[in-house]
Design brief:
heterodimer, A: mainly beta, Immunoglobulin-like, seven-stranded mixed beta sheet, four-stranded antiparallel beta sheet, 0% helix, B: mainly beta, six-stranded mixed beta sheet, five-stranded antiparallel beta sheet
Chain lengths: 114, 111
């Protein structure tokens, strides 16, 4: 039973570059979340999908951030024109159904913008 | 002010000690309370969750929620070096989806 898989594990981007981060949730999980975790901080919510529908994107910090889950399984978080303050670990989590409280997290993608 | 506040530590205790980790929260509408453990360079993993006020015990771990004082606690008995990690408290509003995390407390158990 594979868990939540994220790729790449590490990404170094030059300032101004676009990046795409991938999340493979646990098979069959309906709910998918993206969180941003800055160094020494707790995860901060970015966005939430139920199947392919993006129901909450209130945590996306700017219009440079975009997330999609077109077929209700794999999700991609895209950051355009990266800036140094985007450096963080981006965590993906999935739940088997919306009202279940347990979310399973991936290992995250560590993004460093230089 | 963050909705969930947690002392970042670091906290260092000897093996076998009882550890007490605490959070406070400001939104009285929070209904679900979780504790996650996060090892270095790993994602958070759920340790325990409670609904509303009360205690919950699982092995060496006990979670407590006091809604009257908006206080969340995690106790670890007979602490082990393998318990060394960052502990994150989190809350969810009734009917909501997103987790609201505290800052995390970095805990080290010394052999």
């Amino acid at each position: 039973g594979a868990g939540v898989s994220q790729s790449p594990r590490y990404k170094v981007a030059k300032r101004g570059q676009d990046v795409a981060l991938r999340c493979d949730p646990i098979s069959g999980h309906v709910s998918l979340f993206w969180y941003q975790q800055a160094l020494g901080q707790g995860p901060e919510f970015l966005t939430y999908f139920q199947n392919e529908a993006q129901l909450d994107k209130s945590g996306l910090p700017s219009d440079r951030f975009f997330a999609e889950r077109p077929e209700g399984s794999v999700s991609t978080l895209k950051i355009q024109r990266t800036q140094q303050e985007d450096s963080a670990v981006y965590l993906c989590a999935s739940r088997d159904r919306p009202m279940n409280t347990e979310a399973f997290f991936g290992q995250g993608t560590r993004l460093t913008v230089v | 002010q963050k909705e969930v506040e947690q002392d970042p530590g670091p906290l260092s205790v000897p093996e076998g000690a009882i550890v007490s980790l605490n959070c406070t929260y400001s939104n009285s509408a929070f209904q679900y309370f979780m504790w996650y453990r996060q090892y270095s360079r790993k994602g958070p993993e759920l340790l325990m969750y409670t609904y509303s006020s009360g205690n919950k015990e699982d092995g060496r771990f006990t979670a407590q929620v006091d809604k009257s004082s908006k206080y969340i606690s995690l106790f670890i008995r007979d602490s082990q070096p393998s318990d060394s990690a960052t502990y994150l408290c989190a809350s969810i509003l009734q009917g909501a989806q997103k987790l609201v995390f505290g800052q995390g407390t970095r805990l080290t158990i010394n052999p």
